[in-house]
Amino acid sequence: MARANFSRRMHDVRSRDSWDKIVLLIAFILGVVGGIALKLLGVHPFLTAAFAAIVLCLYALIAYISTSLRLEPEVIGDNSYYLGFLFTLTSLSVTLYFVIQGAEVDRAKLIPEVISGFGVALVSTIVGVFIRVLMMQFRLDIVSRERETRVEIDEAARHLRIEMAQALQQMKLFT
Fold first, then answer.
1. If we measure between CA atoms, which residue out of 83, 84, 97, 112 comes closest to residue 40?
2. Residue closest to 28 by CA, chosen among 118, 88, 74
3. Which residue has the higher pLDDT, 11 or 52?
């Protein structure tokens, strides 16, 4: 009894039930730290944008393929969208920080960097939205599935009635 309670965490959630949250947190930390590091290193903005897009795609792929996470496509899409938005906010914050930290004379020269920083930031949001839309295509449409099932049940019931009537007719002819 004590062992069963020991394996549980707060709110009756076992540690193995929270792998999806851990993977999401790892993707967030990797994306934010990697994005900031690439900006500090002065890497070309396209590479920084590509890094954020790769992290988002890897998260979606791992969450979709992994059987231990067991996430619905809708949840993966939402998480990807929010991750992309968080990467966008982080990139914008770092870009604005560089502008504020720059000398007042150099701020006019920083305008192209600000524009490229905003472009990099928007790429992660666009990729997150794309993954969300893509994952929405994989979810089951319950209403249409129910309609199809009802039609199949009606068809089977009709066939059953016809066969029962034929069997009854044959029994009458036999007797």
1. 97
2. 88
3. 52
> For the chain, percent helix, then strand, then coil, each to nearest 5?
85, 0, 15
Tell me the pLDDT band of 18, cut-offs 50, 70 and 90. confident
Please tell me the predicted confidence (pLDDT) of residue 40: 86
- Give yes or no for a contact between 86 and 109, defined as CB atoms under 8 angstroms apart: no
* CA-closest candidate to residue 78, choices 56, 106, 49: 56
- Collapse the DSSP code of 67 into the 3-class scheme (helix H, G, I; strand E, B; otherwise coil) and give the result: coil
What Rg, from alpha-carbon coordinates, does the chain have? 28
CB 87 within 8 A of CB 32: yes
User: 111-138 and 73-101 are packed helices; what angle lies between their axes, rounded to 10 degrees?
Assistant: 170
Q: Measure the CA angle with vertex 47, ends 80 and 51; round to 5°.
A: 25
Contact 118, 88 (CB under 8 A): no
Is the distance from CB of 165 to CB of 158 less than 8 angstroms? Answer: no
CA distance 80 to 127: 8
